[in-house]
Specification:
heterodimer; A: alpha+beta; 3-stranded antiparallel beta sheet; B: about 100 residues; alpha+beta; about 25% strand
């Protein structure tokens, strides 16, 4: 499912909202989630999961072309931990349905 | 304080002009629709944010950390998240500077 398919499905469910409101609402939610992670705050959605940042310590990498060593600084990367309900529903449905 | 669905509904109320009821219902529906796609075995790709993919895990040996007893961890389907380039870049640029 892509973002535009998500917008379509939400428009079908929220018929009182116009398609441009639905599109703007989806973009607003994703923008707020990105801002939150960029400011190193967590996101917690019960039944779906939580997002947080994980720290990757500095390491020595290599330029794959030249083989030269490069010092890579430590960085934060976004991490998602599925919630209990999502975990159970996805796993219980496994074997019953397969798509994509 | 972590961002919650209530904060997202508040933002939809302020910025998109949904009323409070519509805003709350919309945020619920947003996560319901994504969860249903994943439940049906369909990954979710949100450009700019990231992809929720499904992975099949084989059975593997595990251990009860308290008793040391060996118990197999059964085969399962799990959700993984791969952040998009744009989100990764924003996080790298900003996070960490605050702590």
């Amino acid at each position: 499912m892509t973002k535009s398919e998500l917008i379509e499905l939400l428009s079908e469910r929220q018929r009182h909202l116009g398609p441009s409101d639905v599109e703007m609402a989806v973009k607003t939610i994703l923008e707020q989630m990105s801002e939150t992670l960029a400011s190193n705050e967590r996101i917690e959605v019960r039944g779906f999961g939580s997002f947080s940042l994980h720290y990757r310590p500095p390491r020595t990498g290599r330029n794959p072309k030249t083989g030269a060593a490069v010092e890579l600084p430590g960085k934060y990367v976004p991490h998602f931990k599925p919630g209990k309900e999502l975990r159970e529903r996805v796993n219980n449905a496994a074997g019953v349905t397969t798509k994509g | 304080m972590a961002l919650t669905k209530a904060d997202m509904a508040q933002r939809l109320f302020e910025e998109v002009g949904l009323n409070k009821r519509e805003a709350k219902d919309f945020v619920d529906a947003f996560y319901d629709v994504m969860r249903e796609a994943l439940e049906q075995g369909d990954g979710v790709k949100l450009s700019g944010f990231g992809n929720f993919d499904l992975r099949e895990k084989n059975e593997r040996p595990g251990r009860n950390p308290k008793t040391g007893e060996e118990i197999p961890i059964s085969a399962r389907r799990v959700v993984t998240f791969r952040p998009g380039l744009k989100l990764k870049a924003r996080v790298e640029a900003n996070a960490g500077s605050g702590q």
